[in-house]
Design a protein that fits this description.
The protein has 252 residues and is α/β, with parallel strands linked by helices. The protein has a domain at 1-16 and 82-214 and 226-236: TIM Barrel (Alpha-Beta Barrel). It has helices at 19-33, 50-57, 83-88, 99-102, 108-120, 140-151, 181-198, 201-204, 220-226, 241-249, and strands at 7-11, 40-44, 63-66, 93-96, 124-129, 163-167, 208-212, 231-234. The structure holds 2-phosphoglycolic acid.
């Protein structure tokens, strides 16, 4: 029996091109997802489409996520979106520190500030971590530990329930190379162990851990059943309603 209800997040990234296409995808997901009570489903559309997607979702239980946010509440930050803006648009989750943002220069310190700001605005923070490469000595575990410790600075333990750690090995994102079930299980245990090393066990246990990186309709069942994770952060496959639905079904 898993400790947390399954959580499946679809990260649309910079897709699709028009609001009409966005509505088509979400309407299709919505109609197939009625059957899936028991899982929390979240969609992260481009910020520009949040309002349309929200409208198309209507009374559906599917929640919305921002793909990123700025740590400041308002101000001279051209092109950015704040946590308060996301909340005001009806968004309840936000992805923070995705590797595609970190490559653009987002530091561990910023990821921490964003996490704190997201929680202040009552958003659930889905914070991404992951190694670029794996070395046979296992040095990448130190990188993961450093990323984890940075995220939780100044986060009150009472808010750990509102943090989701998305383990996304960079080499597995959009490449079709998924981490093996054993690797995911091992990393999930390492994340739990690291959190328990730094915080009280009961608080650490509140943090949900999900996996992302080339998750698809074929590998989702074994990853969920044996990887020790509470769900998935899905990129490419989340734009294909039939595949996304199969991934959700794999967790139920
Ligand atoms: P992918 O992306 O499923 O296309 O590999 C995952 C992600 O970047 O969140």
């Amino acid at each position: 029996m898993k400790q947390h209800q399954p959580l499946i997040i679809g990260n649309w990234k910079m897709n699709p091109t028009t609001a009409v296409e966005a509505k088509t995808i979400v309407t299709s997901v919505k109609s197939s997802i009625k059957k899936f009570a028991g899982a929390t489903i979240v969609i992260a559309p481009p910020a520009l489409f949040i309002r349309e997607v929200k409208k198309a979702l209507g009374s559906s239980a599917i929640a919305l996520a921002g793909q990123t946010m700025h740590e400041a509440p308002v101000g001279a930050q051209t092109g950015e979106v704040s946590a308060g803006m996301l909340t005001a648009a009806g968004v309840t989750y936000v992805i923070i520190g995705h590797s595609e943002r970190r490559t653009l220069g987002e530091s561990d310190e910023q990821v921490n500030k964003k996490t704190v700001a997201a929680l202040k605005s009552k958003l659930t923070a889905v914070v991404c971590i992951g190694e670029k490469d794996r070395d046979s000595q296992g040095n990448f575990f130190m990188h993961i530990e450093a990323q984890l410790v940075a995220i939780f600075k100044d986060v009150p333990t009472a808010r750990f329930k509102d943090i989701v750690i998305a383990y996304e090995p960079i080499w597995a994102i959009g490449t079709g190379k998924t981490a093996s079930v054993e690797d995911v299980l091992e990393m999930q245990l390492f994340i739990k162990k690291t959190l328990t090393k730094h915080f009280a066990k009961a608080s650490a246990a509140k943090v949900r851990i999900i996996y992302g990186g080339s998750v698809n309709a074929d590998n989702a069942t074994s990853l969920y059943a044996s990887g020790g994770i509470s769900g998935f952060l899905v990129g490419g496959a989340s734009l294909k309603p039939a595949d996304f639905t199969k991934i959700i079904a794999a967790t139920l």
